UniProtKB/TrEMBL annotation:
InterPro entries found in the cross-reference section: HemJ-like
Cofactor binding mode and count: Binds 1 heme b (iron(II)-protoporphyrin IX) group per subunit.
Compartmental location: Cell membrane
Topology in the lipid bilayer: Multi-pass membrane protein
Stated name of the protein: Protoporphyrinogen IX oxidase
Pathway where it operates: Porphyrin-containing compound metabolism; protoporphyrin-IX biosynthesis; protoporphyrin-IX from protoporphyrinogen-IX: step 1/1
Gene Ontology cellular-component annotations: plasma membrane
Taxonomic source organism: Billgrantia desiderata
The family this protein is said to belong to: Belongs to the HemJ family.
Segments traversing the membrane: 6-28, 49-72, 78-101, 110-134
Function: Catalyzes the oxidation of protoporphyrinogen IX to protoporphyrin IX.
Length: 139
């Protein structure tokens, strides 16, 4: 079981990092730029990070967390709140994907404030998960 906790924590850290990185990269890409020296466009790089890095880490974090919940037979009011916060993080993940599609279609209107809002909500939910897991209120 310790290896399962390590897997869950490691993949959760990588997923959370990508949830903060993607909106920051979206905000940087939303600015109109002329003539970039990079060969790979920002939307292509964003899509790569989203599909090949963030999403696999999210899936492994959720699967290992579910397995940990089943194996350890965790029960408590804090767990319901934690799962609600994780569901919010999944929604932020999906919104990042939608914002990447908007950027690819060159619909930059409201892209910066939406990205900032997604980052703020994701960070708040991450903090909520951390507090709930460490303090385990309602137990």
């Amino acid at each position: 079981m310790p290896w399962l906790k390590v897997l869950h924590i490691a993949t959760l850290l990588c997923w959370c990092a990508s949830l903060l990185y993607l909106p920051a990269m979206l905000m940087a890409s939303a600015r109109a730029r002329t003539g970039s020296s990079f060969e790979v466009s920002a939307p292509a790089l964003l899509r790569f990070v989203f599909t090949h890095i963030a999403t696999p880490f999210a899936l492994v974090a959720i699967m290992s967390g579910t397995l940990l919940f089943v194996v350890a037979q965790l029960v408590g009011g804090w767990l319901v709140l934690k799962l609600a916060a994780v569901s919010g993080m999944v929604l932020c993940h999906v919104l990042c994907g939608a914002l990447i599609v908007r950027l690819e279609r060159d619909r930059r209107r409201f892209l910066m404030p939406a990205s900032a809002l997604v980052a703020a909500i994701a960070a708040t939910l991450m903090l909520a998960v951390l507090v709930l897991v460490l303090s385990k209120p309602f137990d």
